[in-house]
Amino acid sequence: MQRRAVTAVLAAAVLMVTAGCTTDDGEQPDTPGSSTPSSTSGTSGTKKPEGSSSSPAAEETPPAKGSVEVVRTVAEDLDTPWGLAPLPEGGLLVSSRDKGTITRVDEETGEKTELGEVPGVAAAGEGGLLGLAVSPEYASDHMIYAYFTSASDNRIVRMLYDPEKPEGEQLGAPDTILRGIPKGTNHNGGRIAFGPDQMLYAGTGERYEGPLAQDKDSLGGKILRMTPDGQPAPGNPFDDSLVYSYGHRNVQGLAWDAKQRLWASEFGQDTWDELNQIEPGGNYGWPEAEGKGEGDKSGFVDPVEVWPVADASPSGIAIAEGSVWMAGLRGKRLWRIPLQGTKASADPQAFLEGEYGRLRTVVSAGGDKLWLVTSETDGRGSPEKGDDKILELKVT
After folding, report:
1. DSSP state, 382?
2. DSSP per-residue letters across 291-344
3. pTM
4. What share of the chain is helix, strand, coil (3-state, %, to 5)?
5. Which tens digits make up the pLDDT trace of 146-182?
6. Helix intervals (H) in the chain
7. Smallest Cα–Cα separation from 316: which of 270, 267, 349?
8. DSSP letter assigned to residue 346
9. Where is this region: Disordered (predicted)?
């Protein structure tokens, strides 16, 4: 197994204390950061969305300590992979952030087939072709959804996928269902996923303009919830609005547990990265608060867990075997957070530390299996032979 040198975490943590605003992996940004955290007012005017779960019944608690086994390398030599979406008939769709292409990977053989290039992608900094999702009606509509950075904004499109057409020509013309998500060199968000309610959720960033996160009229610094056509979903907490939760800095991971509760990972600034359990209409505090301790006095929703930014810089998350599994970019490790209801039942546990470099996306493969995507070719890693990769993991 290919090994990498592990970053000196303590030294990095000291540097983070004295550093200014950071990008997703702790490097200095190209644009100024947001204001220093302080407390302010909390949420108001919210209503519970249709289909949201009530207080959960007792659940089985996963063991405090788990394990990770790298079963095999599924695919190699991927260029700036970002989003990953399993197809119902088999195969994994992976986006290339910088090339703007979508490729199908045969999960058994590793064979790669390029579907085509998404028109209008303007890759720069952390922007480009980002998250992917497959329509909940895929069996009848064969639609693929993509979140990408254009020359003017971030937007979500859907495209018809026709595998019978020649390689490189299998994507239909994009239908834009949402435009106007603020774009920047960094903090573009980008994760999209269909929830158990068949609605499309999107995590967005505030492009280094912290006040956008508190502005419910802006699409930046939010988790959005919409119909497959891009309209505000029935039961959203704010009338005629896509906004599901706000006060976010840069949401990168979305996943639902067995009780259909939504979880999200989020990049911190100088101090704390976060794992949040998302409440409809909840205000998660940015830029007035970062990390725990503000909820009781300000009305903000406190994160469930936090990490020093040198240890995480979290990207995608998945839920398997009763735990959240969180990919770390600057942290170069996979975090396990065992859950009991809406809380962590034990301290987070780190795996694969430094072994595969930066980790971008993790997706459930069913049961105790995960797909894990590395991110060494994104301009901030140290690519080695075979990078980037998709790995198959077995977890407990």
Report:
1. -
2. SSS-HHHH-PPPPSEEEEGGG--EEEEEEETTEEEEEESTT-SEEEEEEETTEE
3. 0.89
4. 5, 35, 55
5. 999 999 999 999 999 999 999 999 999 999 999 999 9
6. 9-18, 138-141, 211-214, 295-298
7. 267
8. S
9. 22-67, 374-396
